[in-house]
Amino acid sequence: MMPPWTRDGARSAGAVFLIVAAAACAIGALGVPGLRAQVAFPVPAGYSVPADSTMPVGAMGVSIRRGREIVLHAADSLPGHVGNKLTCTNCHREAGTLASSGPWVGSFASFPQYNARAGRVIRLEDRVNECLRRSLNGTPLAADGRDMADIISYMAFLSTGVSHGPRPAWLGYRKLTPRAADAKSGAGIFSENCVRCHGPQGAGTQLAPPLWGSRSFAIGAGMSRLNTAAAFIRWNMPFDRPGLLTDQQAYDVAAFVLSHRRPDTPHKELDWPNGDPPDDAAYPTLAAQHKPK
Ligand code: HEC
Ligand code: HEC
Prior knowledge:
Elements: E1 18-19, H1 24-29, E2 38-39, H2 59-72, H3 74-77, H4 93-96, E3 113-115, E4 120-122, H5 124-134, H6 146-158, H7 183-193, H8 195-198, H9 226-236, H10 247-258, H11 286-290
Bound molecules: heme C (2 copies).
């Protein structure tokens, strides 16, 4: 018998879909401007989202559903804890179930885990609070409170059937080959593909959340890193035509987005305390400066 989490609602694995105008195919994929292939994100092998019908009944089911509502509507659900116009699922799309978008499927099963930015082993509760503090420019939740418990319940549910251990390969945003990015060329890509939803000043509209400015994610957020922003954009934006941009275009437009001001993250210079910041860290850290070369 198939385990319950592979039944209805499960996604098919492995396939790569090319949605292309016939002529654009080969050339567009090489990045010739004007001719573009829209390449859908290939769902990773073994990736499957548990169907709602498999949620437990009773108090546990109530907690799972409440946790999902919180991450979908963080500002309303966590008054005083959110400092911008974003919610969790703007980046972890479709309530954290979309494989292209930093999914939470299997995340619960890989914590506790060493985190280089914190320089220590962290729990899933700490990871949630880091996104709350940085990505939502807010303040942490009590680790032992009901809101945190419900968020963790929902994430545990999304890990149904994933055995506890090393991080599944599909977690995070699927990185592209790092390359030099040209923010000037990104400005043109932005007006052509992003302004209609995110607005000319990147401040957001009724259709889409802010990309920079005081109401967007803070400098200490993972999305402020070029490789991460490019990967998110490459596979998820434009929202209505994901996969439209080439890798280079995704890097250029990410560089343009990240060239603007955004909220600060206090104490960010203490990140990566072991002196191992990634190449695309968005700010200098003390440990890296003091590390002997
Ligand atoms: C601005 C975008 C953004 C927002 C908003 C955001 N996150 Fe994140 N989140 C990220 C990035 C980037 C990572 C790091 C992903 C990686 O490792 O590549 C991440 C990682 C995580 C992880 C670890 C996932 C894993 O790979 O195991 C969890 C859990 C998480 N976020 C929860 C949340 C929660 C809960 C909220 C809302 C309170 C939230 N995030 C809001 C961008 C965001
Ligand atoms: C059709 C409307 C639309 C277009 C066009 C569009 N976006 Fe988005 N974008 C959205 C929506 C809606 C979300 C929130 C996703 C969600 O909640 O599922 C989003 C989220 C984002 C996020 C993460 C959240 C945040 O506000 O930081 C980034 C970064 C982003 N878009 C960048 C871009 C870039 C760059 C382009 C152009 C290449 C683009 N988008 C084009 C609608 C759009």
